[in-house]
Amino acid sequence: MEIALNKITSTEALIKIKLKEDDYQHKVDEKIKQYSKKANIKGFRQGMVPKGVIKKMYGKSIIAEEINELLSKKLNDYIKENDLPIITDPEPNRESIERIDWDHQNEFEFEYNIGMAGEYQLKPEKISVNRYSIKVDKKLIDETIDNLKKQHGEMTNPDESAEGDILFGDIKHLASETTNTHALDLEKIDKKERKKFIGLKKGDTINFELKEAIKDSHEASHLVGVSEDEYKKMKGDFEFVVKNVNRQNPAEITQEFFDKIFGPGGVSTEEEFRSKVEESIKSNYKRETESFVEKSIQKTLLDKTKIELPEEFLKSKLIERTKTDEELTSEYIEEHFDDYLKDIKWSLFQNRIIKEADLKVEHEEVVEKAKELIRQQFGASPQFADQLEGSIDQFAQNYLTAEEGKNYRQLYSNLIGEKVFDNLKEKVSIKEKSISAEDFSKLEL
After folding, report:
1. Mean pLDDT of the chain
2. Exposed, middle or buried, 231 (CB in 10 Å: 0-12/13-18/19+)?
3. Enclosing H/E stretch for 437
4. Which residues pair with 5 in a beta bridge?
5. How confident is the model at residue 325 (pLDDT cuts 50, 70, 90)?
């Protein structure tokens, strides 16, 4: 067997594999022998079918099967042994396959097109990002408690809408006649536009510009029931038909209210309650700010690390997929191609860090992560937590084996990703900065 790499450019190459009869024939003979023992062919006793008969009936398909297995193994071995930075699966050259004469050839030559990343230097120690510490002041605590009181209050249906109400109804894009039934929270409407929605009654209709009323395109697209990309293309007015006016009357500060938030006996005074709320706010913001640090590291590394990719090669492979994937269009590829390239680059960076730092995720870590997720989902209240722990191992096992192990692979990927960022945080320069919650919400990457 001969394997050779022929570079076309710095990021594209051909892997050529030449097979001689000795490379595969012994495997073919073994397979024919197995077939002869198991085949059930009319005129022959089972297990007594002559090899010549099997060869005549199945010889070509057996040869093709064994060669494909051999090629797959040798190709993967060659890529690993030579540490080739491939970014796509090797693609068989169709012309070389079509030239094969399975009836008369016993030596074969195959070609595989591959796309590779160019050489690059990853230098996290050269970059700097900010880690923000959000100030949790009295105002923020009061706002959080007000929201909790509203969430756990009593729902009523007044005749007319007022500040803080939620309108339930049909929202329609007049130009496209796209209609969706949804709840419209008046607090999410821009203050300048909000007055239009005050004083509305069941059955009322209002025309408005959604992009003026709700600045957050993600929030607005969810309201309309379309993708964010589709929403951004929508122009013109929207219509809202009120089906109901919902008002959440805030809950009273009582022990019952404390128990709903932190479980029976969790807190017993308003002072303890405020302290617990403050802890929760800080914990939530810590997760958000740490996520912002990681996104900042990722974006900065992608922006500052020069790496050559076979862009036309990658684009041609995506366009080829449009022939079989109805949801993938040439327009979509053009619009999202830069994001696709960023995903490839980040995958390359992660794999290099994992290899150089010898990062690993043990099975026990995946199991413990599954338990943690289950506790978060079902074990929020103390009285349920004790019951949950008795069955937590079985719950975790069921979760990790569901969907043919998809959940296991996802948790593994999440954990190895966390270790990559932990490794990077030790190398990059991180500057600590204090910021208000309002200003933090305005930060963009």
Report:
1. 91
2. buried
3. helix 437-441
4. 15
5. confident
